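Troubleshooting log. The previous structure file for this entry was overwritten by mistake, so regenerating from the original sequence record. Sequence copied from the archived sheet and checked twice against the printout by T.R.
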Amino acid sequence: MMDQQAFKEAIAELAKEKNVSKEVIMDAIREGMITACKQSYKNSINIDVLMDYDKMDFRIVRVWEVVDEVFDDSYEMDIKDAKKIDSKYEIGDIVQKDIPEIEFGRIAASSAKNVMFQQIREEERKNIYDEFKGLEKKVVTGVVQRFMGKLVIVNLGRADGQLTEREQVRSERLRPNDRVKVYILEVKDNKRGPKIYVSRTHPDLVRLLFEEEVAEVKDGTVQIMSIAREPGSRTKIAVYSDNPDVDPVGACVGMNGSRVNTIVDELRNEKIDIVNWDENPAKLIENALSPAKVIAVAADWEEKTANVVVPDYQLSLAIGKEGQNARLAAKLTGYKIDIKSETQAEEAGWLYGYGEYDEDEEYYDEENEEYYDENGNYIGPMEDESEEEGDEE
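Regenerated output below.
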């Protein structure tokens, strides 16, 4: 028999390598020895292996159940015979008798090894599944391992993640050994090991990267209220803080852009616009269209639509290349946005009465210096009367 200390060290090393408990290893050894013992006996007998986890020792025993009438003496023992061994035995008790050490044959030893490692692999698989199931909807760092057609395999440590074509950024060129942050979409159980699906395009990848990089986002001082993303190109996020001493946009940008630039680098130079969230949809839409300047916004709460007027020279900036700025602003706010230049808006009659007080059509909010129409839709800021008077002079 192996020296107990050496046996104990071998168990500890295997447990560490497989990241399972020593008890799991001992149980696997026990099952393997039971299999080998049964194969070593031509006659069918009931064998068990008793493990002492503290001493890292074991005993091989034959087992019978005490019965009133024996039908199979391989597994059962008559109560009278049991009482001869020990008068305390009663019907239903288990009798155990030590079996001398067995010299296992090659086939029995091979079977024992297979059973043992199968049980260890099963426990290891279960542990890996549990570990990554707990990481669903979170961000982890992985290393690009290999390519299988259009599928990218990302090593996540104890398991590989699958980055499907749909979850890849089209403009991103990944190479073997690249370190990347990925969002764990889903973990599925599988006999060969868990299937872990990851993403580089999910909007929550950006959200969680800000949580990692910005302490105020992580502790809840700054909240990310909405995200609109076109992966690999541009992302807009709307942020808010109920702490008057905290500038939510400034906190996310960081000193000289240090915080946001770290995230931009991780996303391979994807542009990120950070704007202030506002409960007033017209204000939010105005912010969302940044960096374009806005003259007026009329938002319909019920229809979730908005008409936006911008200076003539800002129209292309407001719409963005191939409509991207307007499209992302619409996603960020949840409103369908129609943008016109000042000239176009005047021709369409959008600016009728703008800057004037009309009891039937508009009202003026003195506190915020804003105009609203009869339905409560935000029209725009009040024009500075002093400037108008100066112009007339």
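The longest strand covers residues 57-67. Archived copy saved in two places this time.
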